[in-house]
Amino acid sequence: MGLVPWYDGRDGMYGWIWRHLPGNTWVRALISLVLVVAVVYVLFQYVFPWAEPLLPFNDVTVDNQ
Amino acid sequence: MRVIVRTLSELCITVGSVIVLFVVYVLFWTGVRADDVMDDQIDLLRKEWSKPRPPADGTSASPARPAPYAKGKPFAIMYIPRLGFTWNKPVLEGTGTGTLKKGLGHYAETAQLGQKGNFAVAGHRRTYGDPFKDFPQLRRGDAVVLTDGTTWFTYRIDKGPYKTVPSDIEVIDPVPRTSGYTRSGRYLTLTTCEPEWGHSHRLIVWAHLDSTQPVEAGKPEALRR
Prior knowledge:
Radius of gyration of chain A: 19 Å
Helix content of chain B: 10-25%
Shape of chain A: elongated
Low-confidence stretches of chain B: 57-62
Distance between the termini of chain A: 55 Å
Low-confidence stretches of chain A: none
Oligomer: heterodimer
Helix content of chain A: 55-70%
């Protein structure tokens, strides 16, 4: 397991994460999947609901409240 | 050099994935969530309405002024047969962003349902269940039916869809300018955005109160098939 920073590694950010996950390939794949699901959850639950009102689809009133 | 290219390409992949996910969220997920939430709001109303009401005693028999609506809470269900026979949406008090995610929003400063003045309601054209997607299909004579649990209110559309600019707040006046109404009456105004995915204009329809009947009398003519 290399301890070089991700920007110095040979396979970029995702490769760096992969190399720092414990276990064999299957365990790593499983953990990666969990990480992806967690990121998607955070995006859908917190980030997108915050970002969506900044787009124009919400302006349906004439007094802009 | 290789590090820069690699970093840049990973960044592009990441940003691209997030954008794709965001499109999925806006087009699909908001609708799924909104349908759930709107059904919940309608269930809430039905539950409330099925509760036994306190019998009207002699002192408060005159229904002069109904109680003000609670902000952000549903108080009525709207039916528009032109938008689909199964089309029904809860109407909530207020037009805040959070309120409009749960249903249609009643402009707080406008008249109450069935009262003298202008009962004005805003709704999403797109996203959050697309309640007013087919807004341009509304025509003169179409029924807009609402119920508050005790009474059915049938409004008939007189004019619309009328395209205007977002700052044109006169369209929700008690006697809306450019609507063709000249005297005070019991009116209804619906507003949504135009174009479908934009925010440069608004679409408006106006209606007048055509008839009312108690819920005990069954569904109004316009909702019968």
